[in-house]
Amino acid sequence: MKFRLPGASASLCAAIMAIAAAMTGTAGAHADTPLAATDPAASGKPLVILGDSYTANGWAPFSNEKKCDHGDTAWPVQLSARMGVSGDQVWNQSCPGATIEGGDGYTLTVQAANAAKAGAFGPGTKLVTIQFGFNDHWGGADRSPWSSTEACFYNLAGGCGPEAVADGRMVDPRTITGTEYAARISKVVTYIRYYAPNARIVIVGYPELFRPDQDSICFDVVGVPVPQPNGRTVVEYFNRMDQAEREAAATMNLDYLDSRALTTGHGLCTPQPWINGVFDPLVNFDGLPFHPSPQGDAVIATALYERYAR
């Protein structure tokens, strides 16, 4: 299928082709027709949210239904309230398990395609946020950093240091690079820039779960700290992801929200954690484990509003 857009660049056409392919070839798209272009008459929605579970931050632990749960206190909800927008003024298709590319869920391309179909992009679009990375496979690895991290959390005896990478039990953190991150999001960013020319596009970083210099890690189970003394590789995942997102934003002239800096000192097992443990009554009993608490999300929402959405 060919798309003819007078004056569009080759990269824009590539972006449209990629999104159109996702619309027709990805089960998670829930769309029947390919996307050629946003309706030129569409004014767009002020706020467009694209992301994974750290954006959606919803959890139904006793449900077997696979769906995109959105938490009532997740930062997009709090940000929407601060901006004074709601309902059809906001597009939020963030989804737990979402990736930039690959997988069988709501990838960045699918989310952007559905947003375009809904008329979310236009001259009235003020802010577009992107928060992805931990569920992706990097450097040809057979699993994601997040799946490796989960294995570390629940394998206390095995350890998660450099030897786990050497043994093939964990993904090598060095495979996460800013160059690859930028390449993966470039087509969608080009598309958004063309159809939402007035929007600020912000890569939203991940919050602090562990200090960047830690070798050991810890998480809370029903309020009880559970240490993993050999967890350096998990910490390196967050270090490398932060660096990759920052470099990608700089390369592409995008904004970067350093959520890690905003939540410094409030990771897991700290005196005042802003990250949920596992059924932790001291923080947020029914919150999604290892994801921001309402307070952590409030800090991110406030920063996004004050810096990019006033």
Molecular structure report:
The radius of gyration is 19 Å and the shape is globular. The chain starts with 9 loop residues before the first helix and ends with a helix. The chain has helices at residues 10-25, 53-56, 75-83, 108-117, 145-153, 162-166, 178-195, 232-252, 259-262, 294-309, and strands spanning 47-51, 90-92, 127-131, 200-204, 217-221, 224-228, 255-257. Helix 1 crosses helix 4 and helix 1 (10-25) crosses helix 7 (178-195). Residues 1-9 and 12-36 have low confidence and may be disordered. Helix content is 36%, strand content 10%.
Architecture blueprint of SSEs:
Layout: H1 10-25, E1 47-51, H2 53-56, H3 75-83, E2 90-92, H4 108-117, E3 127-131, H5 145-153, H6 162-166, H7 178-195, E4 200-204, E5 217-221, E6 224-228, H8 232-252, E7 255-257, H9 259-262, H10 294-309
Parallel strand pairs: 1-2, 1-3, 3-4, 4-7
Antiparallel strand pairs: 5-6
Helix pairs in contact: 1-4, 1-7, 3-10, 7-8
Write the H/E string, N to C.
Answer: HEHHEHEHHHEEEHEHH
Shape: globular
Cα(first) to Cα(last) distance is: 41 Å
Helix content: 25-40%
Query: Number of helix segments?
Result: 10
Radius of gyration: 19 Å
How many strands? Answer: 7
Low-confidence stretches: 1-9, 12-36
Characterize the largest beta sheet: strand count, sense, and whether it forms a barrel: 5 strands, parallel
Structural class call reads alpha/beta
Question: How do the strands line up in the largest sheet?
Answer: 2-1-3-4-7
The pLDDT mean sits at: 86
Percent strand equals 5-15%
